[in-house]
Amino acid sequence: MMTKAIKVGLGLIVVMACFYACDKDNSFPPTPYIEYEGVELIPDTAIIQLYFRDGDGDIGSLDSDGCPPYDIYFDYEEMVDGEWTPVDRDYNWCVNSLTPQGQDKTLEGDIFVSASLVSLSENQDSIRFILHLRDRAGNESNAVTTPLITP
Fold this sequence. Notes:
By secondary structure, this protein is mainly beta. It has one helix at about 5-20; strands at about 35-40, 45-55, 70-80, 85, 90-95, 105-115, 125-135, 145. It starts with a helix and ends in a 6-residue tail after the last strand.
């Protein structure tokens, strides 16, 4: 037979385990964070996969008529004779609002962005993209760099 103290102790352990299992702490800082996940090359296009998270959920444009300011910014570089050379290209990408309904506004997931590889310089050996994400409050994520892409 179990004593009353053992029964109470086991009951408390079960209750604490239930609360611990139900507590999913998805608190992230309000500044977006991104990670490079991969790239897929299809004819004339690079599809770049990014993991992202944001603590206050203010990712994406609320304006259905237009996008700027853009949400994902690209820097584009070409390797020419073994040196990375920045190239001025208009590579920016809009995201529709991802703000979740309800009280918990934290966001995390994957975003797929596409970049045209048409009309690249003829003298480049390889290319890479440097990307960052900006939320509606103007907080800018860390920058991530794709590996070498050979179109």
